[in-house]
Amino acid sequence: MAENGIDIRPMDQFVVKPLFGGDVVNWYTPTNVTLWMALAVLAATALMVYGSRGRAVIPSRAQSVAEMTYSFIYKMVQDVAGRDAVRFFPYIMTVFLFVMMANLLGLIPFAFTTTSHIAVTAVLALTVFISVTALGFILHGTKFLKLFWVDSAPLPLRPVLALIELISYFVRPVSHSIRLAGAMMAGHAVAKVFAGFAAALGAAFFLPILAVTALYALELLVAVIQAYVFTILTCVYLKDALHPAH
Amino acid sequence: MEGDLVQMGAYIGAGLACLGMGGAGIGVGHVAGNYLAGALRNPSAAPGQTAFLFIGIAFAEALGIFSFLVALLLMFAV
């Protein structure tokens, strides 16, 4: 494509590079992923700690953002997963804040979006999947398997439904992780492609820039919604572990 | 030559997997449209159902994600 003057490489932004030179990546090498994950943790901590330091009756802006996030997720856990799921609220809140901060930090120009890598989201999703399955068996023993045996269905249909339920249960971590990674990767690649058009179009450069601005607003929305969807699905899976009977 | 043919087939297949987006689009539109129709009939009940809106959208979207997965596998794993 270079001969037309258009040289767009939208996937270059997702390359994992070591922070301090070289190009060998071992499991202990600090890379740009490490840096931006650490920043996401820092941002989440800063929001909650800085937001709650005043404990004012009339909240400041930071305090109301922190309080609104907290009560929003608390209410969601209560509504979706049930009142007895509140003891798992700290974990769900942590997942939400980490995913949201990682998504939002990735929108800064030249930043790295850690959640655009399936490896990152797969670990998050598998943690949820494994711990929720273990929790179901710990709380209910073998009765947890009733999740796959639909009592309300006619008897001849039940084995078929059990098979479908089993497949859909094991597909959960796949869709859970790829949804987030796919949405983040696609959004950033599209923004990069449009930004590349701006360089290629010459005098009409402002048209792609307008498009990128609109896309950026959409991406801000998507970043928060995908974090919300990731968390709400965690709550749905948690509800299945706490109340396996249909 | 044979490798090229396999490569070509993989690329065509990855492109065809994009059609899965249409299915996911229909599903998500159906969920959101029906939510809006219900919300306009009974606006007071709408806020309590937004969680189900997002769960429904997420489940409808999951099938579109599988087509993305197929495309990824064709591009990088075949």
TrEMBL record, chain B:
It holds the Pfam family ATP-synt_C. Residues 12-74 form the V-ATPase proteolipid subunit C-like domain. Keywords: ATP synthesis, Cell membrane, CF(0), Hydrogen ion transport, Ion transport, Lipid-binding, Membrane, Transmembrane, Transmembrane helix, Transport. Coiled coil: none annotated. It comes from the Bacteria. The keyword Zinc-finger does not apply. One of its GO terms (molecular function) is proton-transporting ATP synthase activity, rotational mechanism. It is a multi-pass membrane protein. GO terms for cellular component: plasma membrane; proton-transporting ATP synthase complex; proton-transporting two-sector ATPase complex, proton-transporting domain. The chain crosses the membrane at residues 12-32, 52-77. Its main location: membrane. It is found in: Cell membrane; Membrane. Gene3D superfamilies: F1F0 ATP synthase subunit C (1.20.20.10). The record marks 61 as: Reversibly protonated during proton transport. Belongs to the ATPase C chain family. F(1)F(0) ATP synthase produces ATP from ADP in the presence of a proton or sodium gradient. F-type ATPases consist of two structural domains, F(1) containing the extramembraneous catalytic core and F(0) containing the membrane proton channel, linked together by a central stalk and a peripheral stalk. During catalysis, ATP synthesis in the catalytic domain of F(1) is coupled via a rotary mechanism of the central stalk subunits to proton translocation. Key component of the F(0) channel; it plays a direct role in translocation across the membrane. A homomeric c-ring of between 10-14 subunits forms the central stalk rotor element with the F(1) delta and epsilon subunits. This is ATP synthase subunit c. It comes from Rhabdonatronobacter sediminivivens. The lineage of its organism: Bacteria, Pseudomonadati, Pseudomonadota, Alphaproteobacteria, Rhodobacterales. The gene is atpE.
